[in-house]
Design goal:
The chain is α/β, with parallel strands linked by helices. It is built from 14 helices and 13 strands.
């Protein structure tokens, strides 16, 4: 006997078009107050409406973390989500990136992930972007209320941190302008370990403030690789770093080319056999050459869940937010720990001004040279102005009008700006094409 014919048109729905009772669990959190509520939380329909109708969230990455994040956000009431990813789906993704199927191999991750979430979660709109994050203008990122990073490289995280910090502006007393803070939530996994962190530029430590958290990548001395290999990784790196260049000097190695990877594996195997070393496999070869750490689906799920929870807190203030870093270790039992890391007061990205002390007789040209030397990775051809907007030296069409200032003492320029010659300290603003936003320098002339 066939089951009853269910008419979807007859299902009772609320004013948003959702099935009545669909968000009962969310209502327990948003429709009533409680001791764990965050500052300014106002329970009720308005808060729920902000979450569902207003909040616009961007997810960076549609891989192991990204798939989990999209699912968690959609099921937590967020209905306006964008996702950006430059990769296509590979066979090796299918064991943990659950939104993808075998027939999706070769297709863009962002597009397929968006389609799958919208198929399964009624009412959510996920807009995909199949491109690099660098392909988007900085102003494009400003439309989002929260940006969640499910990225797998320090370079991409640093780039997004710089973008978010570039929106930051400060009041006259050095406190951040709250309306310019672009919240970031960062998730990362490494095997059985992971972290989730909240970044409020100007309030909490930004990514640049805590770069020391990330250890340098493992490297091997070439003499060890060439003369005394002791493990499988040494044999693989020998084939990769030394043998390839010697035997195929006019061909650039491509880690994504199966033939290239097979060549490395076969030569590493022969070297391992010559030295009586075991453990060289094709999978291990790919891991060493690409610096791949095996992904654990449960770790991705836990970290993505924490990131989505922090996004819900930010959007509604239903609970106090994480302060400001959560680490997870599942290698021996399950252990989590929250740490309140401190801001770097001289962070070039998120501080109200980086301290710099120079001799009292320094000219503007001397100051520019010192700035370029101190920030050689991010500043090359700076323009300098004061915090009040006076142009001291500008590149381009204003260069001729400000050129004479280069030979003037900085103490004179600051003294004129602040209404007298006694002022030897001041805030100057540095702009450069390589900078995402203005660099603030707290200059002291002693």
């Amino acid at each position: 006997m066939e089951g009853p014919d269910v008419n979807m048109q007859s299902i009772e729905r609320d004013h948003r078009g959702d099935m009545v009772g669909r968000w009962t669990d969310l209502d327990y959190v948003l429709m009533r107050d409680g001791p764990s509520a965050g500052p300014g939380f106002e329970p009720g329909e308005d808060t729920k409406s902000v979450l569902m109708d207003v909040m616009h969230v961007l997810v960076l990455g549609a891989g192991g973390l990204g798939c989990e994040l999209l699912k968690d956000l959609a099921l937590s009431g967020f209905k306006k989500i964008d996702v950006i990813d430059m990769d296509t789906i590979d066979l090796s993704n299918l064991n943990r990136q659950f939104l993808f199927r075998p027939h999706d191999i070769g297709k863009p991750k962002a597009i397929i992930a968006a389609e799958r979430v919208m198929e399964r979660v009624e009412g959510v709109t996920v807009t995909p972007h199949y491109c690099r994050i660098e392909d988007k203008d900085d102003d494009w990122f400003e439309q989002f209320h929260i940006i969640i990073m499910g990225l797998d490289s320090l370079e991409a995280r640093s780039y997004m941190n710089a973008v978010a910090c570039s929106f930051l502006r400060f009041e006259a007393d050095g406190t951040p302008d709250q309306s310019t803070i672009k919240p970031l939530i960062d998730g990362g996994t490494e095997g059985w370990k992971g972290h989730a962190r909240v970044i409020l530029p100007g309030v909490t430590p930004c990514f640049q403030c805590t770069m020391w958290l990330f250890p340098p990548q493992t490297t091997y001395p070439l003499c060890t690789l060439a003369e005394t290999p002791r493990n499988a990784a040494h044999c693989i790196e020998y084939a990769h770093l030394i043998q390839w260049g010697n035997e195929r000097p006019n061909e650039e190695f491509d880690a994504d080319d199966p033939e290239h990877m097979k060549w490395i594996y076969e030569n590493a195997m022969r070297r391992a056999e010559a030295f009586g070393i075991e453990g060289v496999t094709l999978y291990h070869t790919m891991g060493v050459v690409k610096n791949i750490i095996p992904a654990i689906p449960s770790t991705n799920a836990i970290i993505a869940g924490q990131c989505a929870l922090e996004a819900l807190k930010m959007a509604t203030m239903c609970a106090k937010g994480l302060d400001n870093f959560m680490m997870y270790n599942g290698s021996d039992g399950v252990y989590t720990h929250a740490v309140a890391y401190e801001k770097d007061p001289d962070c070039p990205m998120c501080s109200p001004g980086v301290a710099m002390e120079l001799p009292k007789e320094s000219t503007l040209s001397d100051v520019i040279d010192a700035i370029v030397k101190k920030f050689e990775d991010t500043v090359a051809l700076p323009s300098i102005s004061t915090s009040n907007g006076t142009n001291l030296y500008m590149r381009g069409v204003l260069e001729e009008a400000t050129r004479d200032n280069l030979t003037r003492k900085m103490s004179e320029l600051l003294g004129e700006e602040h209404g007298g010659g006694e002022k030897l300290d001041g805030l100057i603003i540095v702009n450069d094409k390589k900078l995402k936003g203005p660099l603030r320098i707290r200059l002291s002339l002693a």
